[in-house]
Design brief:
heterotrimer; A alpha/beta (415); B mainly alpha (307); C mainly alpha (289); A: 415 residues; alpha/beta; 3-stranded parallel beta sheet; 10 strands; disordered N terminus; B: 307 residues; mainly alpha; MetI-like fold; 2 domains; 13 helices; globular; disordered C terminus
């Protein structure tokens, strides 16, 4: 930490508060008849002001909530650090988002620099955190990983006093099945799992509507070209379970056995098992039938607009909804900065930039309104609730289920 | 006469095979270079609002495994992406350090072990081969836990980052180096060394002037092998890197949203630099050899097989 | 350097003089392995007899339940398949690489090292980029394949090609280092005395360079057994090898005890090959090359 911290107080507060602080500074100078540095000025009544600025009650020292001492409360009044370490998927955020964050008044006054480092799968993230990897301030787990991390106490409870922009978020997305109290995550973006086919090659007799229809098409069409299913134990098994009408997170042995048999029965109809590598091929028209996340399917549709040969299907009945979230590890070295980051990402303008970059919806109504009409009204981007009401989050509730899923997945792949 | 023709045919056959293998090795490289000049797909250019097509987002770029037209803007884009260039630099320096340290460790071990009694050598051999037999993901996770636990309980190791990547990679690289150097050392024969001793040379100068130069090809092979392995290593650094990013880590993570030709452009530049360096070194050594004394098998020139 | 001088044994009459290098030269590497290899391995061993108590957490106890779980038809099948894949891949690599190394060692003089470097250079492009380039080449909808009528992407042939491509330098370097010190005049002498070229090759060259070939072969075979990324990309994710299983277990399932048990079992199985090699190689060394 810099020594000149004694000379400057780095304040974390909404930008709108700045005039008030300047006013207070001048007032105090007048009162004291001499120049006082901001620190002393704020020492006078700063804490109360800060509490007021954060929109909470002015319970002295209490902070919003007043629950039993949580780690986040200790953040109150702490200065903004000069570093923020973000552990994320590569190329998942618009580069300007980082730059603009560093240029915010409070952050640039603190000399805050962001530092990103990357992983290529949730499993890698989890393995590193489990093994004791520290040093990350922000991580971006998918919903099943969030649930796991909460279970093990790996995440810090968020202090929403430091995230006033949380009011911008659609309240429906505050709490979720993977984080019932909603204290450990702020949703980054979300998506669903759907499927698509090349209508010049795959000509089903009835229009496929459910995920089960998708699976049923595999065996018949694999000879005509490449088919693909999504990869990973936490995708393959629950998606198949849901297609059979079971819960994504069922741990009923009979249902799991059914799922396994079903998967083995369609194995021959699968050319590739891939979650990312297939997208380029699909854009080139080389995939005739595949599952896909809605953002990727939009990319493919856009790429093949001229040919117009892709029919995308939002599954009726069960399918997966997933969410990537911003979380702060319990061992984060720069928690205040981490909260500031999350707050920044909840700005509608930031959200719009982000959505335009990665093509997945962020549930901030003010931002969604600003998206171009063709995006806003695209049911694949803004999936109507008639579909999503039936969709479930895939979770990792306990190691036994995860092990069981992994085994079925391995048997599927090895078949 | 028949024998000479047979020998000539044999040489021709081998040369033909060599050409085929080189072609096989370089075909994908050619593809990498060609696609460094590939434009984004026509549809994505049409919907792009900016002026520099190389600024199109990875998600929107369309299919870049087909040829969409020529552009050279990816080179500038790649060099401007500090995410990539920093990672390449990091990978390079880690690989350099890892290969040097590993080769030194491996050289020492190879020298001493090759002429040791079997009784002493066997356990060491077992250890070395164990390091090669471990699947990389296993040593990666185990090393991560090891570094973290030792640091938190004994305060001993550096925090996760460049040094831990280095420490982990040297284990495998040192074994590689040891094996490569030993394979050559064993069959090298000791006549020259014997002669040197007879002529009164001490152990150190014998090593320096007789053994080491003759081992040079193997030492260099070990260095190259270690460097290559380390530069391209994904699994071990992915776990022991803390917050450091190496080139493979950045690439693997980028696959989710799409690799752009900027990456190909950087790879092409790296290839260019290496090829230029090699040619320069070859010319320099050739010249130094021509100017130097006659046919003795010593000096760096001989080490590079020049003459 | 008195210490070094005394380590040099005096000449024994009749036997060839082989200066022994002081044993302490092995200490640095020994120390290094002990800390940075045996340390992590000890952790692995401890995990393999523990029980999973939560995600990524472990109840320390002594139980062989993990190893009992390894004994399952799924894992055994996958292991056999992996051995087959690695053996085929290694043999192909040897078949492709040995003639090349031979050519370099025997027929080149001036540009020997250069030829070696030229082989290595492609491998300083990232593995991922190279493999995706291979994908483009092998793709049945791609250019080359369409011209030649090849459709092998996502089949085991594609995986085989990918393996050979990526493991070639690992094989060539040790073999080259070994071939390079061959005294080719021996071949000349043999053929002068009436031996057929192939016999000369078999009895002299092959025998003398066997240590290098076996080292190279093992250096390729063993890592191939743990390989899972190449099959994933070029095989379309359809092939499940031991590397995938272990990766899934540490990754998807966050099950360290079981993953450790799997790893130790794999290592034990592969060690069999290693032991054979050690016995073979050290025998050669004792009787001279």
């Amino acid at each position: 930490m810099k020594d000149d911290r004694n000379e400057h107080l780095n304040i974390l507060a909404p930008r709108s508060m700045r005039p008030k602080f300047d006013y207070l500074h001048r007032e105090v100078q007048d009162l004291a008849g001499m120049r006082v540095n901001r620190r002393a000025a704020l020492g006078i009544g700063g804490l109360a002001l800060l509490a007021a600025a954060c929109g909470g009650s002015t319970n002295a020292g209490g902070g919003g909530g007043g629950a039993a001492s949580q780690p986040a409360d200790a953040l109150k009044g702490k200065p903004l650090e000069d570093q923020l370490v973000i552990y994320n998927w590569s190329e998942y955020d618009d580069p300007s988002t980082y730059k603009k964050f560093e240029e915010l008044p409070a952050e640039s006054a603190a000399g805050l620099k962001t530092h990103e480092t990357y992983y290529s799968s949730n499993d890698e993230l989890l393995a590193k955190l489990h093994a004791g990897g520290t040093g990350y301030d922000i991580v971006v787990p998918s919903q099943n990983a969030v649930g796991e991390l909460i279970q093990e106490g790996g995440l810090m409870k968020l202090d929403f006093n430091l995230i006033p922009n949380i009011k911008n978020l659609d309240p429906k997305f505050r709490k979720a099945s993977f984080d019932p109290t909603g204290e450990f995550h702020v949703i980054k973006d979300f998506g669903i799992t759907m499927f698509f086919y090349q209508n010049t090659v795959v000509k089903p007799s009835t229009e496929p509507k459910t995920m089960k229809d998708f699976y049923n098409l595999l065996n018949a069409n694999v000879s005509k070209g490449r088919t693909n299913v999504l990869d990973g134990a936490e995708e393959v098994v629950p998606l198949a379970a849901m297609a059979l009408g079971y819960s994504a997170n069922t741990d009923d042995q009979a249902e799991l056995d059914d799922t396994q048999k079903f998967l083995l029965s369609i194995r021959k109809g699968v050319t590739t098992i891939s979650s990312f590598g297939y997208i380029n091929d699909a854009s080139a028209g080389k995939i005739i039938l595949s599952q896909g996340w809605n953002g990727d399917v939009r990319r493919i549709l856009k790429a093949r607009k001229k040919e117009g040969d892709i029919t995308a299907v939002l599954p009726t009945e069960k399918s997966e909804v997933w969410a990537d979230s911003w979380c702060v590890p319990a061992t984060a070295p720069h928690p205040v900065a981490a909260h500031a980051w999350i707050n920044w990402l909840l700005e509608p303008t930031t959200a719009v930039t982000e959505m335009e970059y990665h093509s997945y919806p962020i549930p901030i109504p003010a931002a969604l309104d600003q998206m171009p009409a063709e995006t806003k009204n695209d049911p694949i981007f803004n999936v109507p609730s008639t579909y999503t009401d039936n969709y479930e989050y895939i979770l990792n509730p306990n190691p036994q289920l995860v092990n069981a899923r992994t085994k079925i997945y391995q048997q599927f792949k090895a078949a | 006469m028949r024998r000479r023709r047979r020998i000539l045919t044999a040489k021709r056959g081998f040369t033909a095979w060599a050409i085929l293998v080189y072609a096989f090795l370089y075909l994908p490289i050619l593809v990498v270079v060609i696609f460094a000049f590939d434009k984004p797909s026509a549809t994505s250019i049409a919907t792009f609002k900016g002026s520099n097509i190389c600024n199109i987002q990875p998600a929107d770029i369309g299919n870049i495994s087909v040829w969409n037209g020529f552009t050279s803007c990816w080179f500038a884009k790649g060099l401007n992406t500090s995410l990539y260039t920093d990672a390449i630099k990091t990978s390079f320096f880690i690989a350099l350090e890892a290969s040097i340290i590993a080769t030194i460790l491996g050289l020492g071990a190879a020298l001493a072990l090759a002429r040791m009694k079997r009784r002493w050598r066997a356990p060491f051999d077992v250890l070395v081969y164990l390091t090669l037999v471990v699947p990389e993901i296993v040593i990666a996770v185990a090393s991560l836990i090891f570094f973290v636990q030792v640091r938190s309980n004994l305060g001993a190791f550096p925090p996760l980052g460049r040094s831990t990547i280095l420490l982990g990679q040297i284990v495998f690289n040192a074994s590689l180096a040891m094996l490569v150097i030993r394979a050559r050392f064993v069959g090298m024969g000791d006549k020259l060394e014997e002669a040197a001793y007879d002529l009164g040379s001490g152990p150190v100068s014998t090593f320096r002037q007789v053994t080491l130069p003759r081992l040079m090809p193997a030492v260099i092979a070990a260095l190259l092998l270690s460097f290559t392995f380390s530069f391209d290593d994904y699994v071990l650094p992915a776990f022991t890197n803390g917050t450091t990013s190496t080139w493979p880590i950045v690439l693997y993570s980028a696959v989710r949203f799409g690799i752009t030709p900027a990456v190909n452009a950087l790879a092409t530049l790296m290839l260019l630099v290496t090829l230029i360096l090699i040619v320069a070194v070859a010319i320099l050594l050739r010249r130094s050899r021509v100017e130097g004394p006659g046919q003795e098998e010593h000096g760096l020139g001989a080490a590079f097989g020049l003459g | 350097m008195a210490a070094v001088a005394t380590a040099v044994k005096p000449r024994k009459s009749g036997r060839s003089f082989a200066p022994k290098y002081p044993k302490w030269l092995t200490l640095p590497s020994l120390l290094y392995y002990s800390i940075f290899f045996l340390g992590p391995m000890a952790i692995l061993a401890v995990f393999s007899v523990s029980i999973q108590s939560g995600f990524g957490s472990v109840e320390y106890t002594f139980s062989t339940s993990q190893f009992a779980q390894v004994n399952d038809s799924l894992y055994i099948t996958v292991f056999e398949r992996t051995l087959l894949m690695a053996a085929t891949g290694s043999l192909l690599t040897i078949a492709v690489g040995y003639p090349l190394a031979y050519w370099m060692a025997r027929y080149l003089s001036t540009y020997k090292m250069l030829a070696l470097l030229v082989i290595i250079v492609p491998f300083w492009t990232s593995f991922l980029i190279r493999t995706y380039a291979l994908k483009i080449i092998l793709d049945s909808h791609g250019y080359l394949a369409q011209d030649l009528g090849i459709n092998i992407l996502y089949t085991k042939y594609a995986v085989g090609i990918g393996l050979v491509y990526n493991y070639l330098p690992l094989f060539i370097l040790p073999v080259f280092a070994s071939l390079e010190r061959m005294d080719w005049t021996l071949i000349e002498a043999a053929t002068d005395l009436g031996a057929k070229p192939f016999t000369a090759f078999k009895d002299i060259t092959l025998r003398l360079t066997m240590p290098g070939v076996v080292t190279g072969g093992l250096l390729v075979f063993i890592p191939m057994c743990g390989e899972y990324i190449i099959p994933n990309i070029l095989g379309g994710g359809k092939f499940e090898f031991v590397g995938n299983i272990i990766g899934d277990t540490f990754g998807d399932a966050q099950n360290w005890p079981f993953g450790s048990a799997l790893s130790i079992s794999l290592m034990a199985a592969l060690s069999v090959f290693v032991v054979i090699y050690i016995m073979f190689a050290t025998r050669e060394e004792q009787f001279g090359a």
